[in-house]
Amino acid sequence: MRHPTRLGIALAVLIATAGCSAASGDGSAPDAKPADGASAAASSVTSCGRQVSSSEPPKRAVALDQASTETLLELGLQDRMAGTANLKTKIPARYEAAYAKVPVIAPKIATAEQLRAATPDFVLAGSSDLFTKDRAGTREELDALKVPTFVSAVDCPERNQAGKTPFELLFSDYENLGKVFGAEKRADALADLQRAAVAKAGAGASKVPQGADAPTVVYLYSVFNGMPYVAGGTGLPSEMSRIVGAKNAFDDVDEDWPEVSWEEVAKREPDFIVIGDLSERGRPGDSAAEKRASMKGHPVVSRLAAVRDDKILEVPGIELDPSVRSVHTLGLLADGMKDLGYAR
């Protein structure tokens, strides 16, 4: 997310293995297993306008954030990872064994020195801001060292020109990484399963009031120094809202996670509120309970019908940023709208 307390990205969800038998009750796949042996074929994909070419599948990949780490673990590529960095929450239990095999090169954001010490042959990140001179180094600098780099298509500045939704851009990441690592079957299976999850979440959208009568929602991500950060029009929650037939109350703000005032939240009069629970991060105001208390204690926000009538949904905060587990929160949103009476 694009504010000072940006998180990595999260997990607990719908993911499949190529050739797995059946998904578990919550739609998630069995525990991650090593990918099939990589083919020796060269690959070339496009990542944020740059051609990423490899003569053979990477053997020492480094993931610079949690989103990228968990994607590689879901694809069963832990044996071809030389490092990970910048995890903001606990690794889910289903990935613990695989994650234990991966060296942590930096507990927070990796520096160029820490990255180079890992001798990677491929580096990936969920956001381009990790590839800067004062962090891991620019993509140009790593290219000069013959180290290919990959940035999630969701963060690519040119993403809107592609005409794809944020979820489709996320799925294209899986497919491109599958090509790079020679794990196409598993990557395609993951993308197909999550496409089905998106379709399922949107199945009831036509039964939700449309147009001016569509229910509006405010996504409360974090409270930093007493000020709320909410989902703006460029983040994944706006797409989630569209899929389930709701409207993000801050769609008109051209940011992912803008800081706003509590008075502005009240002015938008949302029909319901989605709280991102960031309890694992452990900062003041991160937990869902603290956010509820902030709203109920505010002289203006407390008078909102959504607060008075407890029309509040709680979801894992980290899943509101694009990641391999974002479809899980999309499903929670769809189910929550039914529980609130907005969909049949």
TrEMBL record:
Listed SUPFAM superfamilies: Helical backbone' metal receptor
Keyword Transmembrane helix: no
Signal recorded as keyword: yes
UniProt keyword annotations, A-Z: Signal
Domain Fe/B12 periplasmic-binding: 60-344
Pfam families: Peripla_BP_2
Signal peptide limits: 1-22
Organism superkingdom: Bacteria
Family that this chain belongs to: Belongs to the bacterial solute-binding protein 8 family.
Protein name (database record): ABC transporter substrate-binding protein
Organism annotation: Streptomyces gardneri
Taxonomic placement: Bacteria, Bacillati, Actinomycetota, Actinomycetes, Kitasatosporales
